[in-house]
């Protein structure tokens, strides 16, 4: 035996390479074949996915996009007054944001959205009751009126309305049920006082309304509003609102823009109102003073019976009037400068400064305009941000810089006005000295007349400024205008029909694909030839298909079944594997892999060549051949070894499956099977049987459990190792390779047993040894698996 094993000097360690073999297109073909074999599951799941997509689209409320475009007056982009000034350069160095971007932040503020919700009463909505969900509607046959403040809404309600009669209604939801009367107030807990006014005849079809807290509704609209600047080189703003009702969405977005324009105008009017308030306060004071002076003049004339004054006094009065008028203008400008200084002293809470109070100083008026713009921008940003926000801090820094410039300008202007007042005062004093030379009565009148001229000049100046400011306030327009009114898209934004159908199809196809993949991933047993190839370098002698027949012996003289042909092909390959040897050992990793079944049928296949075959049942721990053949238990191998007087002829018996196949039973189960297998009488028995039979087949215990097979390998010329599809563990395929590498059993060839047809998975697959094992290849149709067996792999 050892001589035959050493006929070929083979370096098994060099021959075996346990690294994975390079994959070729067999993996792809195997994958495609497996998908095609289970096409009905893919078709079914894809159909379910498409039906699911249809139902989703059928019962999902579509969402539309409403678009609008605003044009904003941007001084930085339009070349305003300060664009080329030193102040404009300073603003750019300080990193000031474009006013367009500031307006974007204003449009996003929660306060502006709240104003829109209040104006449109968007905290109340109407719907029709559907089978799956409520369908929002634009108008309902009734109107819900909130009689209390919208800010009192603390809870959300969705109520169905069903008319009981012409006046009574039933309001209900899964948690609430109560009754109310049309046009009569009722209290809804957590909301306040409501009233339902009919707008038409209420139908019996269920409809209803919902009401939600103001802040949550405003937050919901804010999340659906998109405000963007499409291009940094233009001053336009794109607004987009997502809503389920396109017409209602257009109205909501229009109201939002209107409220934004109102806010913008209100900011501009704040400056004008501040200036008017300052002028009005000064006018009231000057009017009272002027009235007092006129009363004094009238009383003076009556007391002194003064009808007219001399020509000299008239000239002096007229000269004094010119000087006093200029002096009054200077005094008014000083008062305005002092008022501006008071406004600038508050550094913690900046506020707008009255404008147009010093008309001759164009630079200072430009500073006031810039200062007021920055203050209003800061107030806007504080609506949606804190004072720690970088944008707010940036604007605050700009305000501080402009304030310093204004304070310096105010100081310089005041010094100039002081000098002008001193000059006018000197001229007025020279006239006064001349007046002292006129008679006493006329001199008193001249003093009063001069005071009247001063107050009159102040009054006229303030009245002119008031008219200018009032006209300017009336002419105020928003710095933005709508260039593209709100319009809803014709097709809904969500759900996207094509994408949903594609997603449904992909999910439907992915389900069986994922199931197959996960099942293979979690499967630890041999399922394919690739599972064997990736972990094995031993040759495969043959493959045996799954058989539905109940008989243990499927090979006969007349048998032309596919499985019988597979045993014949294995018999042919065995002749090359034995190298003129005759002793064959059958083992496996564990019990149940078909050693006895394969040994029986291979024995019959060899016997059909008119060869004498002996089958030895050497699984002394758990014999099974005798039971498979339905033979009574008798004397066997263990009896022969123990009883030295027993002859081999006493334990040899006919198998009953073929006249050329004999059987040696295991005999009584001994306590020491390993010692019996290497007994000297076992060697004698093997030599004796070798002279009588052409082939000796030894059915050994699993090598992965006990060492019996390793002990019997000394008598074998070839070891056939059984691997059963769907039964043998993947890791167990390394056992025969380890046995060869450690020289425990040589040579070993594999037999793959119980291969089941899996359409494209194994079907028609030839391993390159001149045979195939697909059903129907030899003129006899096998049983194909049923469609539901997909789940039984």
UniProtKB/TrEMBL annotation:
Residues covered by the Polysaccharide chain length determinant N-terminal domain: 27-117
Transmembrane portions of the chain: 39-59, 499-518
Keyword Membrane set for record: yes
Coiled-coil boundaries: 276-303
Organism: Sphingobacterium phlebotomi
Reaction(s) catalysed (UniProt annotation): L-tyrosyl-[protein] + ATP = O-phospho-L-tyrosyl-[protein] + ADP + H(+)
Compartment(s) where it occurs, according to its Swiss-Prot or TrEMBL record: Cell inner membrane
Protein name per UniProt: non-specific protein-tyrosine kinase
This protein's GO CC annotations: plasma membrane
Principal cellular location given in the protein's record: membrane
Keywords on record: ATP-binding, Cell inner membrane, Cell membrane, Coiled coil, Kinase, Membrane, Nucleotide-binding, Transferase, Transmembrane, Transmembrane helix, Tyrosine-protein kinase
AAA domain segment(s): 584-712
GO molecular function, one term: non-membrane spanning protein tyrosine kinase activity
Sequence similarity: Belongs to the CpsD/CapB family. Belongs to the etk/wzc family.
């Amino acid at each position: 035996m050892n001589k035959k094993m050493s006929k070929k000097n083979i370096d098994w360690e060099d021959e075996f390479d346990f690294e994975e073999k390079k994959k070729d297109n067999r993996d792809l073909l195997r994958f495609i074949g497996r998908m095609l074999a289970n096409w009905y599951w893919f078709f079914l799941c894809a159909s379910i996915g498409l039906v699911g997509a249809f139902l989703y689209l059928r019962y999902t409320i579509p969402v539309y996009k409403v678009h609008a475009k605003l044009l904003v007056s941007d001084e930085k982009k339009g070349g305003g007054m300060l664009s080329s000034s030193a102040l404009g350069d300073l603003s750019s160095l300080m990193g000031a944001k474009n006013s367009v971007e500031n307006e974007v932040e204003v449009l996003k503020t929660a306060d502006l959205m709240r104003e829109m919700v209040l104006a449109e009463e968007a905290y109340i909505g109407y719907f029709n009751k559907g089978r799956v969900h409520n369908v929002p509607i634009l108008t309902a046959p009734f109107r819900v009126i909130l009689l209390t403040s919208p800010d009192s809404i603390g809870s959300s309600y969705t109520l169905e309305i069903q008319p009981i009669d012409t006046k009574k209604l039933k309001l209900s939801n899964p948690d609430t049920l109560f009754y109310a009367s049309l046009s009569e107030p009722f209290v809804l807990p957590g909301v306040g006082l409501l009233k339902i006014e009919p707008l038409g005849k209420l139908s019996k079809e269920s409809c209803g309304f919902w009401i939600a807290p103001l802040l949550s509704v405003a937050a919901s609209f804010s999340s659906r509003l998109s405000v963007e600047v499409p291009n940094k080189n233009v001053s336009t703003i794109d607004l987009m609102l997502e809503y389920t009702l396109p017409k209602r969405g257009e109205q909501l977005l229009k109201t939002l823009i209107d409220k934004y324009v109102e806010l913008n105008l209100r900011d501009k009017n704040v400056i004008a109102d501040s200036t008017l308030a300052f002028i009005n306060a000064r006018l009231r004071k000057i009017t009272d003073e002027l009235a007092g002076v006129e009363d004094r003049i009238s009383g003076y004339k009556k007391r002194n019976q003064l009808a007219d004054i001399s020509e000299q006094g008239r000239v002096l009065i007229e000269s004094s009037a010119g000087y006093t008028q200029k002096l009054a203008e200077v005094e008014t400008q000083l008062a305005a400068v002092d008022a501006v200084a008071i406004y600038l002293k508050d550094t913690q809470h900046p506020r707008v400064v009255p404008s147009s109070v010093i008309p001759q100083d164009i630079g200072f008026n430009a500073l006031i305009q810039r200062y007021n713009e920055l203050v209003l921008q800061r107030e806007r940003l504080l609506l949606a941000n804190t004072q720690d926000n970088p944008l707010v801090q940036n604007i605050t820094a700009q305000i501080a810089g402009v304030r310093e410039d204004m304070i310096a300008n105010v100081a310089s202007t005041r010094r100039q006005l002081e000098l002008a007042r001193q000059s006018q005062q000197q001229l007025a004093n020279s006239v006064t000295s001349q007046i002292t030379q006129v008679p006493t009565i006329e001199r008193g009148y001249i003093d009063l007349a001069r005071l009247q001229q001063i107050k009159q000049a102040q009054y006229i100046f303030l009245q002119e400024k008031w008219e200018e400011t009032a006209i300017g306030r009336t002419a105020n327009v928003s710095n933005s205008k709508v260039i593209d009114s709100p319009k809803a898209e014709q097709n809904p934004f969500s759900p996207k029909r094509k994408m949903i159908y594609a997603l449904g199809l992909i999910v439907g196809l992915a389900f069986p694909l994922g199931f197959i993949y996960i099942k293979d991933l979690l499967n630890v047993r041999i399922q394919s030839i690739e599972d064997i190839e990736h972990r094995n370098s031993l040759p495969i002698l043959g493959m045996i298909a799954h058989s539905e027949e109940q008989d243990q012996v499927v090979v006969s003289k007349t048998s032309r079944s596919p499985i019988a042909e597979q045993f014949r092909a294995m018999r042919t390959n065995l002749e090359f594997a034995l190298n003129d040897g005759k002793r064959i050992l059958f083992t496996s990793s564990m019990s149940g892999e078909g050693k006895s079944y394969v040994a029986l049928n291979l024995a019959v296949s060899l016997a059909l060549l008119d060869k004498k075959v002996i089958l030895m049942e050497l699984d002394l721990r758990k014999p099974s051949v005798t039971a498979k053949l339905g033979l009574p238990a008798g004397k066997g191998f263990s009896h022969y070894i123990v009883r030295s007087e027993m002859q081999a002829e006493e334990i040899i018996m006919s198998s009953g499956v073929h006249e050329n196949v004999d059987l040696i039973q295991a005999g009584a189960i001994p306590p020491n099977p390993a010692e019996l297998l290497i007994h000297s009488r076992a060697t004698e028995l093997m030599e004796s049987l070798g002279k009588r039979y052409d082939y000796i087949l030894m059915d050994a215990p699993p090598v992965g459990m006990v060492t019996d097979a390793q002990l019997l390998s000394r008598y074998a010329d070839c070891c056939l190792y059984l691997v059963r599809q769907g039964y043998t563990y993947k890791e167990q395929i390394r056992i025969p390779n380890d046995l060869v590498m450690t020289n425990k059993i040589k040579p070993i060839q594999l037999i793959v047993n119980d291969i089941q047809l899996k359409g494209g998975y194994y079907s028609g697959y030839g391993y390159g040894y001149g045979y195939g094992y697909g059903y129907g290849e030899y003129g006899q149709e096998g049983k194909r698996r049923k469609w539901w067996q997909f789940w039984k792999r």
